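Forwarding the complex inputs:
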Amino acid sequence: MTAVVTLYVAGGAPRSAAALRNLTAAIAATGRPEGTFRVELIDVLREPARALEAGLLATPSLALTGANGRRRWFVGDFAQPEVLAGWLADVLDGDPP
Amino acid sequence: MTGTAISRLPTGIAWLDRLTHGGIPARRLTVLLGQAGAGKTLLSCQIAAARARLAGGGTVFAALEEPPADIIRNAAGFAWDLASLDGRQFHALDLRPDPDMVFAGDFDLRGMLATLSAKARQTGAELVVLDGLDTVLGWLASPARRSAELARIGRWLEEEGLTAIVTAKAERQGGPVDALGPLEFGVSLVVALERREESGGTLRALRITKYRGSPHSSSAHALFFSRHGLEPLIWPGGDAPPASRERVGSGMPRLDALLGGGYLRGSTALLSGPPGTGKSTLGALFAASVCAAGGRAVHVAFDEGPEQAIRNMRSVGIDLDGHRASGALRLIGLQPGRDGPEQLLSEILAAVETQKATALVVDPVSSLMRGGVADLGQSAIRRLVEEARARGMTALLTSLVEVGDDPSTGTLSAVSTIADAWIALGYTERGGERNRTLSIIKARGSAHSNQTREFIMSGEGCTLADVYTAGGSVLLGTARMEREAEERRREALASLDHQRRLRELQTQLAEAEMHQRRSALQFEAAQAELALLEAAEAGRRTDQAERLARTAASRSADVPVEEAGAPA
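Prediction (whole assembly, two chains):
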């Protein structure tokens, strides 16, 4: 089963690039099989309707809907990918910290 | 910022537009600061509703703290009906952060601005409210980052052509919130809302602490909640409409005469006096008179309540119940002390408005001061006077004066300076009885009488009576009645005297006439007798001559008749 991780960024700000880089590193750090997470990248400056749909507050933000159906939000540029990796794995298992 | 005048977006709230010289800065950021419960969210909703009414202007309302449903519910008690605007001119967005949201690393608010841009474009709204922005800004690590994000919002507004209001909690009274950072960045207008609980009332105030590019006064304006939301107790800048010359009957023609024709329409009269001097009666008389003349009145009975007021007034011949039944009179009982002055004021104004009242009686207005903060009570009364003037509604406010009260303090002095007219009711004690008096102390715009009158209440109604002065003091009650009786006695005696004299003269005249008539009759009788006498004498002479002639003829005597008669 593939879980969609939606990453909301605002344009090509340095924080956007850092967030994507850190997210990729975090997904690798979860040790889950390849294809477990699919990253969807949304630039809210190009697609504000998607921001409205999500009720977005901050960028970069990352949304992941877990096994229990709840959507969890992660806000920031995730300076520590290993911490994010732990959260992603927990949400995926439906047992948030 | 250029030197040219800033462009403003009218809020549609008349008093706020006046305080801000035309509205909040257009395409700029306005901050409403205040502690919890100061009315920040409510004022922003009020602005949204007023703009909708003003020109159908739409507002995107980003609820960052409270759920939109709660916000709409909290506004349900006000006249503007936010629920009916929901989805039409009021577009609420539930942007409350998920409590389980995880923060890691740096971020900015472009995501939120993108959300708001999308909503504003979708709805065509010009105004955006960010309710509780401090919660979101508080996530940012440093004051510098908060300032930067506020500046970002400022730039975003210019780019999108939107105007924003941000509400944020103040940590302490009057101080800017730490979460908003230095407000110099990006913020054009800062409005501080204050709320302070005092024994017997809630003091609310609004203060403009910053208005870039616009003159402003930073003085505090006392506020209260009416059915229109927050309103100033004292209308900013005042401009009362010119005083009316039209008169409204007091319900007592003689009082109208004293006042120069009645109360001036739109004016406020104070009726002061000790207990039982007829303040309530004069108030009810006025309300009933207005209703009878086709007007509409609100009568606030503080102490006794509506039913008691109706019973009391029936005993002096005033029918309040009939006017209440016809809808012309709204009689309300309010509990002083339980609610603060601002709450009582709000209820009175709501009644005046829904009743479309042309007259207001508040009996007694001192109840607005009772137990409350004196300043607040005074402001509330001032507000009633202003409301009356603005509506062209004639108001009568009664005020209790306890015997021995220093008249220069308390409600009386406060109200008497504000009121347009002041009628003092009182008692005079003399000869073991108390009598009610009425005198007009002041009546702006009227040539009024300075004389004291006796105020008489009875089952047949109320009236004023002239008073007599004796030895420099005014005679009332029994003393007045005795004086009146004495006058009547004297008058009766004088009248009797006149009658007698008249009869005497009439008799004399009649006698003279009779005498005259008798004389005339006697004259006629004598004349007639004389005529008869002469006729009889002539007859006798004729008879005698004939007899002599007949005798001579029978004797064939040649003696002349004359000679024959000579020996006789």
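Residues 478-552 of chain B form one domain.
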